Amino acid sequence: MQDDPRYLKRRVTANSLDVHPTEKALVVHYEVEASILGEGGGQMLGERKEGQKIIRVKSLSPSTDVGALAKKVLEECKLIPSSRLPQVEQLLYYLQTRKTSPVEGKEKKTVKPRELTPFEGMELNEEASITKVDEYVELLYEGIPEKIRGSALILQLARNPDNLEDLLHNEAALGALARVLREDWKQSVELATIIIYIFFCFSSFSQFHGVVSHYKIGALCMSVVEHELKRHDVWREELRKKNKSAPENGSLRRDQDKAQRKYQGLLAKQEQLLRVSLYLLLNLAEDTRTELKMRNKNIVGLLVKVLERDDEELLVLVVSFLKKLSIFLENKNDMAEVDTVERLARLIPCEHEDLLNLTLRLLLNLSFDSGLRAKMVEVGLLPKLTALLGDESNRQVAMRILYHISIDDRFKGMFVYTDCIPQLMQMLYEHGEDEIEAELISVCINLAANKRNAQLMCEGNGLKMLMKRALKMKDCLLMKMIRNISQHDGPTKSLFIDYVGDLAAEIRSEEEEEWVLECLGTLANLTIPDLDWELVLKEYNLVPYLKDRLKPGSAEDDLILEVVIMIGTVSMDDACAAMLAKSGIIPALIELLNAQQEDDEFVCQIVYVFYQMVFHQATRDVIIKDTQAPAYLIDLMHDKNAEIRKVCDNTLDIIAEYDEEWGRKIQSEKFRFHNNQWLEMVESRQADESEPYLYDNDNDNDRTDLFYSADGITPGDGSVSPDFFISCSRTFSSTTASPGRPVTAYGFRPDEQPFYQYS
């Protein structure tokens, strides 16, 4: 015989504490153990059930005393033992400092659609109860009004996160809601909005995404959005026709106003449906696989079309969605194919702070694409972005977009027609001795590469301010900006005369290489005719420094290259060129040329130094008679780099004019090269039997002008001495094509073809 029940024993145990994913609240997970004891105290029945309690702390703010609040939480919630006070404090501190974003949140979303407004014909006079869900489901099998009522009651429950778990297990309810949405969404905007809102509540939590996907709600939302956008186009066209055809009389004017009011009412309901549908899709897009499915169904095109709307809340959502999508290349390319930038341009500026900030961040993502940067300039965003430099909250993002635009040489000059440069200079001035933000100085460096921009920067005391701060703070980036300014010919360059001594004083071995590089580069740009470089080199003892830095490996390649450029600049002065030649810099340059022969810029700049030195009588003799520089120049005469060939030809022309022996060698090499080209062309013609000969022998025998003449090397009748060909064949026996990069007499690379050696 079973004992009669005497009393109930109940025990509640707190298992874990956590923070609420979307609200300022703590979540206490607890376990209730209930036992029915018999007369003898033995357990007759027992049951355990898990639950959770949400403790909302809406008063929590950055200034709240977390310790005091934690004690108050323990006093009011008896489920939490006092031993957990440190844990409560830690969780409250996390809530106090937590930052969430509607786009970037991982687990749960904090942004929800604006509160649903009461729908026409739907009045709810009762409070929904989780125990009556089955009754609400029965309403879903009746007419549209009843379906709206039933779904609205379920929505009341779904908006409380505590009820989602129970609703999740009610497959009949979720299945009925999905079926009604699938079958009736075109019949009632209100019904579609409510049901999608219910599933949106589930989509706010990552762990419930599976149930939303199971019922294919995302695909349905894509269909809803596409259909509503098409319907909106029909509405606008109908309204346009009525406005166009309505004459100015009282009755028809009233009909027109009525149609306009009806359109606005339909538009409000439609935008509410679009908002909740897109929010749901945004939540589901956390999964990149789901996002890819959306892309395949043209989510980008749909979102960009919604940018035509005026509802700011809807626009915030759409721009947030596009910003999230834009981090993937495929989505960015889709945005480039439609009028994304054009439609975003109208949102800048706007009074809605969140919308403006999100739009700028989306444009920042898009500005990594050169074509989209060009589109931004084309639609007039440059002056709009410049105007935002005065807005403290949006300055940094606007500056980053301007930086990307300033990278492109095509657009640097367009900054002249805005007030961007005066604003940038004012910002630099206001920094004083504080560190300059990377975005600000980066934009300035890029813009200084344009001549007109540089002139604007130097207006007034602009250059003086820049030089004073750069030299005082030894700011390498600011000096890089000054270096870019110094490269432009014209009145700007002459302003640097006052600072030559200051810059030369910084070129010392004790200074950081990066700083010396910028100062030296600025000096090397100062090709000013009236500047006494000999005095500068002597006063600051720069010749030993320059010579030491020419040794391969003595410094970074960038610094060595600037030393070569500096030597080329000062070599324009006759006295300086002679001083450098006597110091033994020319052999050092030849050694560097041998070491850096693969670097076109090094080769070109070293050859330019030779070009400058052969202008002066004192250094010309040293170059021609005491070094092998002419032989190197002949080797480089047919280089693949056009700039190197140009400088070599100019230098060799001067050498040939002043030295007959080298002149003959130079002419001989030119003839050999052109003759090789001729022979190769003839051989290739002969190899192709289907092609006729280039010239008709019967008609062109007397065309002696077709032969290359080299002042005595080839006679005027076109014949060539056999001795010449024998000499050439011994020298170039293995060379059948135009040589690549020649090497000097100081070294030979096994992969190079033989070069012409001069005795």
UniProtKB/TrEMBL annotation:
GO MF annotations in UniProt: kinesin binding
SUPFAM superfamilies, alphabetized: ARM repeat
Transmembrane segments: none
A matching Pfam family: KAP
SMART domains assigned to the protein according to its UniProt record, in alphabetical order: ARM, KAP
One GO cellular component term: axoneme
Start-end of each ARM repeat: 584-624
Origin: domain of life: Eukaryota
Any GO BP annotation: cilium organization
Name of the protein in question: Kinesin-associated protein 3b
UniProt source species: Salarias fasciatus (Jewelled blenny)
Taxon lineage: Eukaryota, Metazoa, Chordata, Craniata, Vertebrata
